Amino acid sequence: MTRLCTIAIVTPYYPPKIGGVEQYAARIAAAVAAAADLRAVVLTTRLDGGRRTTVSIEDGVPVVRLGVWLKLSNTPLSPLWPFQLRHWLRRTGADIVNAHAPVPGLGDLAVAVAGRRPSVLTYHAGSMHKGESGSGTADRLIGLYEEAVLPRVFARARQLVAVSPVSLAEGLPHAVRITPGVDTDRFTPGEPASRRPRTVVYVGRMDRSSAWKGVDVLVRAFARLAAEVPDARLRLVGDGDAVTGLRALAAELGVADRVQTPGALRGAALTEAVRTAAVLALPSLTEAESFGMALVEAMACATPVVGSDVGGIPHVLTHGETGLLVPPGDPDALASACVKLLSDGALADHMGAAGRRTAEQRYAWPALTARYLDLFRTLQRSS
Questions:
Q1: Distance (Å, rounded) from C-alpha 335 to C-alpha 221?
Q2: Does the N terminus or the C terminus of the chain have fewer Cβ atoms within 10 A?
Q3: pLDDT in tens, 296-327
């Protein structure tokens, strides 16, 4: 009987936590688990802050959740991880390591302790510089990491995967690009955008450490467009420690009764929120937004999109065709773009249909995960 090749997928966070990196890693795990000649195991961290390792089977995949001793901003850490990673790679019989970053720590360590196992580092971001008021110390630490540590991690990995043209791994000699994707059988069009309630939707995390997502800019933009579109609503889908502040901002701007914060939605509830939106907005501020998975999910639902002209967003969203690009951090421009799509039904429907075609042709998951399986098999044969 032929021994299965075991792929250890190492990611700082994993579902049920919601986020682009988490969903990307879960898709790879599912594709590996479904392959007849491969086996998947996930090494990640506990979401509840516990220090003891837990092991479970999630969607048919073994998931090892390592304990967390502390968190710095959005980065979980533990001094035990170098030893625990070696132990679990050995215990699970891992043949190939697929680590995911940019969150420093777990992915970097996995590449460092992989030993003779081929390692694939998937890098999901451009520079993580926050560029915000009061972030000087954080930006200095990020700069030190990106200039001194990350190049060594990149050099040690057998293969790099850049998820977009702005990923820091893009263009390196041993890098390939495999973008995130979308389940086009799950995210499907509903009514044309012109017939939907005039709701602007944001989907993503709302943590104070992720202020670069620009959700406060979207709230300010909505306060401007609310006067022009009296029946418009804003729906902020997601959770995090910034939600309370965003609600307070909406109240300060006089639109609290028109801003909904339903929390993190999953499954059919998330799909329905995207499918019934008139516009989905992604107001990110920096190149930390290397792709924007919410954009392609909306495009698959024929929902027109508005995004900041920064990071990977302009490589996903074609201005004037699948949506509109606006300068980052400009609430007036963001408001104007949303008003345009809410007011011009023909334009919204055209962009929604174009988005659906793009999602089917460029971002359907099966073709993207197939490239990972080919990559793993090639590494297996060469090791």
A1: 5
A2: N
A3: 999 999 999 999 999 999 999 999 999 999 99
